[in-house]
Amino acid sequence: xxxxxxxxxPVEKGNQAFSxxxxxxxxxxxxxxxxxxxxxxxxxxxxxxxxxxxxxxxAAQIPKIAEPLFSKTVWIVVQFIGIxxxxxxxxxxxxxxxxxxxxx
Length: 104
Hints:
By secondary structure, this protein is of the alpha+beta class. It has helices spanning 11-20, 22-34, 62-66, 82-103, and strands spanning 2-9, 38-44, 47-55, 73-78. It has one domain (2-103): ACT domain (Alpha-Beta Plaits), CATH 3.30.70.260.
């Protein structure tokens, strides 16, 4: 399932992690582990932030993904593209019409 990992690194911790090299090694490890289809890094509300879109095959992967970022703020959320949205909406429409017909 396509997921998006977003993380934010507080300024002081980010400065320390940048200085000691752990920020670069953590990001490199995540990229090697997740093999993201896209990875973006930018400031967000004054903090170093990153976004990675990747395929998660099992929810049991979450602890391994999140643990290296434990001292940071981490979000892992489901992502889908336009065709996924359209397919999902079509299913909802079919199901709602089926419910409406069965209630009559």
